[in-house]
Amino acid sequence: MKFLKFNFLKAKKGLSGAACLAVILVFVIVTLSWSSTRFTRISVCQTCHETFVDFDEYKPIGEVSESIEDFRPVKEFKPAAFDVTVGCAECHAFPYEEYRDSAHYDNDLDVRPGCVGCHEPHSVREILSWKFFYLNTGSLGESPFHAISNSLRDIPAWEELRIELAARVRKQMLEDDSAKCRVCHKTEGEWFGDIKRHRIMLEKGNRTCIECHYNLVHEDVEWEKHKEQL
Questions:
Q1: Are 28 and 118 found together in one domain?
Q2: 213 plus 162 within the same structural domain
Q3: CA dihedral angle for residue 132, residue 135, residue 136, residue 141, rounded to 10 degrees
Q4: Within this chain, do residues 110 and 213 fall inside the same structural domain, yes or no?
Q5: Residue 182 sits in which domain range?
Q6: How many structural domains are present in the chain?
């Protein structure tokens, strides 16, 4: 009798383990199959909470370029499978309000790059790790996600945080030779060569857009004294 009971419990554990494995497998398959579209829809944000900014107000717009002399994008933005390209304004409220006052948001060219037109989108892994699994040398629970959310309620905290974020973005743009700028601002156009500093840049080949063109969209952040971070 004990032998039968042991076998029954053993079989029950085996079934429970198999069921858990099946659930995990289904979750992975569903995530992979949805990844190319699910994380580029605002509904992914609304799964857990209300959204306060209409994504249509800041999503990228603009027809694909037909000439090197226009300022339309040469290609459509195609995010990687696990990039989250929606909901930026929900967490980055202050930068969003600054963006709304810039020519990159409102111009007579009917072109708007959106947040992801200039910035690298966060991945699903980053968001989950920052929100739920982040550990640092300080106390548990402190993460980039909490730093952002705290700064929304504390202007001095945001002014301090923006310096770090600006340095990070500028470093990325230096590394990729301002690739995202060049999607709309084509260096092959005649307009580009008409500007003396641009001609010098092309001749010497040791400069990139972001080194001169910064503080265009968001509030000013000095660069010189923070270059050691780059």
A1: no
A2: yes
A3: 50
A4: yes
A5: 51-229
A6: 2
Asked whether residue 3 falls in the same domain as residue 72, the answer is no
Tens-digit pLDDT profile for the chain (230 aa)? 544 444 544 545 555 666 667 667 656 555 555 554 568 888 878 877 788 899 999 999 999 999 999 999 999 888 888 899 999 998 888 999 999 999 999 999 999 999 999 999 998 888 887 777 765 544 555 677 777 777 777 788 888 889 989 999 999 999 999 999 999 999 889 999 899 989 888 888 788 999 999 999 999 999 875 455 44
Q: Say whether both 2 and 84 belong to one domain.
A: no
pTM to 2 decimal places: 0.75
Shared domain for 29 and 63, answered yes or no, is no
Are residues 176 and 209 in contact, defined by beta-carbon separation less than 8 angstroms? no
- CA 76 vs. chain centroid, Å, equals 16
Cα 28 to chain centroid, rounded: 23
- Which phi and psi angles does 13 have, rounded to 5°? -65, -40
Secondary structure (3-state) at 1: coil
Are 147 and 206 contacting, i.e. CB atoms less than 8 angstroms apart? Answer: no
Q: What are phi and psi of 112, to 5 degrees?
A: -140, 115
Specify the long-range contacts of residues 208-216, CB closer than 8 Å, at least 24 apart.
208/173, 208/174, 208/177, 208/178, 209/173, 209/178, 209/181, 209/182, 209/185, 210/170, 210/173, 210/174, 210/178, 210/181, 211/174, 213/181, 214/166, 214/170, 216/102, 216/103, 216/104
